[in-house]
Structure formats: C-alpha cells, structure tokens
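Troubleshooting log. The previous structure file for this entry was overwritten by mistake, so regenerating from the original sequence record. Sequence copied from the archived sheet and checked twice against the printout by T.R.
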Amino acid sequence: MAPRIGYLLPTREQVMQGRPEAAPLLALAERAEGLGFDSIWVGDSITARPRHEPLTLLSAVAARTRHAELGTAVLLPALRNPVVLAHGVATLDQISEGRFIMGVGIASDVPNIHAEFAACGVPFEKRVGRMLEGLRLCRELWSGKPVTWNGRWMLVDQSVGPVPHRPGGPPIWIGGMVRASIERVGRLYDGWFPNAPNPERWREQWAEIHRIAREAGRDPAALTGAVYLTLTIDENKAAAEARMDDFVQTYYGQPAAVMRARQANYAGPAEGAAEWLSSWVAAGVEHIVLRLAGDPQQQLDAVSRLRQRLTA
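Regenerated output below.
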C-alpha cells in the first residue's frame, strides 16, 4: 500500500532569504494539493528559527485547499497558553473541516531554543510537564463541556467555542525518539512523527510503540506511524549533495555532517530517491512528510513523479 505523502512549506527558508510574503507559500500549498500531495505542513519557532506562525498560516492554507490534510511539524505547545491554543486549534479545525493534524514536540536542548523559551516567559526545564498538562487541558476544552482545572492553569466552569470540527479534537502526533516519547505515543496519543536517522531504527521503535499500546489496552492499528524526511532530487548527485550540505548548514547553523548524520536525508537522482523512500514504507511508515531542499517548484514536480513507485 502506498504511503501518504506530505509537503513541508518552506516558511523558515523564505524568512532566511528575506522573502516573508505569504502569497508564494499559499500558492505552493495549492500546487502541492494539485499535484496529489496528501498533506501540507508548517514548522514552528518564534525567535530561535523565525518563521510564519503555523496556526495562522495553516488557516489561510485551509481556505485555499479542499482535500489535503494540514499539520504542524512540529508545534511547541509549551510556549503557548493551552486555553488560547485550544481555541485557535478548534477554529483551524473548523476552517479545514476536520483536516488538521497536531504534530507536537518538546523542543531541542540548544542555546537558541533556551533563549526562545526565556523570551516567551516559559521555563525551559519545565517544558515537558507544561506540554503534557497543556495537551490534557486542550482535550478537555475540545469536549465542549465546562472545564474546571486546578494546575498550572486555573479554570472554573470555563469552555471554548467553537469546538473542533472533528469530535474530541484533532489527532495528536508526538515527535521524538527518546524512551519517554515512545511511551507517550503508545499510552496517550494518536501518532508518532519522529525525524529518525534510518528505517531500521524507526521500525524497531514502532514495534515497541505497538507493544506499549497493547499493554495500555489500546489498539495499535489505530495509531499512525509517520516520519519527517529531508530530500533533494537532482540527476547530478554531486550537485544534490552540495545543495543538501548548504541547506542543512544554513538552516541549523551547525556543520552539515553533524546534522545529516542525525536527521534522515537523501540527495541524488530520482531512482535512488524512490528506493530510499520505499525503504521507509517497507519499515511500516504510513505517512511521509518531506522537507525539500532546492527550488520548491522543481522539487515538488520531481517528487510527484515518484509517487506511483512508493510501495512496500
């Protein structure tokens, strides 16, 4: 069975290039849907890696598309008041008529993200607890019933409206490959969305998530296994490798070799790209989200031509 294929809009890249206009991003979203991409994604960062605010941009994408799912890759809930977040997500889910997927993460432990949390008035060392409690509170508010809450946030018979289009709210996918993330997916959430280094490691941890889900009395088949990959296609492999090195080094401000060893990526001809992507499908991945390095139009076209070859 062919996987679902998603496209990450280049919000960060556009801002780095001094081109913050939203219109080209919306046009790319429409083009991706027209080419048959199953989902459209937006990353999240406020000051560490400045880019467009994801829920706002995805609301505009929702109004310009009809079928593609929309997601965050990934949102940092700890940076946001969960009552405000629940309200914004519910509105986005209504605009998209239930197409939103809430990919979330805890953020990397690096200096610029420490500074980002400080700028937002959120203790970095408390981010995991804030995320978990905040997501629980969001789900309570999405029920539409009055909520009383006594924790980091205090509510007495409060509710938000509208509630999401999808009953109970959008599916929540957890990023990360540490043991705690694996446990959370299996016990609590709806999908797994890591940036895995290779298909073998992904397969091993996905099997562990299934085991944890069964032990928690959940149906593993109800969970979605996804992955976030970086790709550039060029029949000139040397040119593709150089483009990928420049992309990741500029994006992260770290040596390309370090980042490429940590995050799964492919640079080279289309034939090799098809084989590489198929290896993830064979590992059990159901939903592949692609960050494309290089000219967006050319890369979208190149990936669209590979779709029929991606089978397990």
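DSSP finds twelve helices and eleven strands in the chain. Archived copy saved in two places this time.
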